[in-house]
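Q: I'm writing up a methods section and want to include an example of the input and output format. Could you take the sequence below and give the corresponding predicted structure tokens, formatted cleanly so I can copy it straight into the document?
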Amino acid sequence: MFRVRLSLWLIGVLMVPLEGAAKSEFSVLFVNPSVAGEPFWHKVQTITEQAAAQLNVKIDTIYGEGNRHIQLAELKKYLNYRATPDYVILMNYPRGAEATLELLDKYGINFITLEQTITGPERHAIGNPHERYPTWLGEVFHDNYDAGSRLAEALVLDSDIHIKKIKAIVINGHYGSESDVRSQGVIDYFNEQGVKLHQQVHASWSKEQAYDKTKRLLSRYPDTNLIWTASDLMAMGALTGVKSSKIPHKVSIGGFDWLGDAIELVDNGDMSATIGGHFMMGGWALVTLRDHYHSHPFWQTNTMLSFKLGVISRKNLDDFRWIVHSPDWSLIDYKAMSLIGAKKLTYDFNLTQLQRSAEK
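A: Here is the clean output for your methods example:
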């Protein structure tokens, strides 16, 4: 009798943590396309993981290390040796998309891609979501063209001189769809407004290359008073180039990504503006996956979800100051963004959610 009672007691003790633990609803693999700790993608990853905790989702992360071959190899390794996730969130690398989508299709995994990185013949080969790959639910991306134009407008407004006297240079990222669309936005804006564009160069998203190329461009065009860049890291490189060139007049500088260092440079007047907020895209994608898991039809009737970026300048900096130093991303209410039980049929992902979070 004692042994029976002891056995029952042990069973009860062992079951307590199992009953008390919250079981995850489903699992997601997040593929960080960069290296661990890279400022922008680390923020995307952190926010996605915070959203997962709030939404009761089990999430794992692997790294592409900035290389399409490594990303595909790491994805293969994970799928071969780990439990198959219910969903995958990833960014396609140019020239690597077809192999990646074939792999996910082989395993029958529903997935969402971030950013529209594939164009031209490669895009024609993979098609659109729901077509060649039925488990490709859709794309979550920001409007790069609009962002390029709006950053240019913010720099022009900050320059405090007549628009016809502005002399600009453009520092783009790599030769690819994302940076090309961004730069097309600024070039079209300059053409429409009559802004003189001295030259456009590519700096491969590198702070060091942006510094070197800014120095050379300023020696060629010393009257430059506006520098548009496709990333905050390149903007910081350009800023160092301007300072070391001892340009006597003000140069309005801006970039993409809302990096904390860039926001601080806006605050102290060294940079004019930064455009961003797209670090939210992983968290937003996760909200849509939770809804899909609960049978909401959004990804049955839609193939894309686009959102606009926001400009931070000294005019509105106080609204976003909280995101600079160790922000608590759990303040954002991801559950409130769900379409489950809502009357609206589409998502309203926007950056005013960050402003409201700061007020909590």
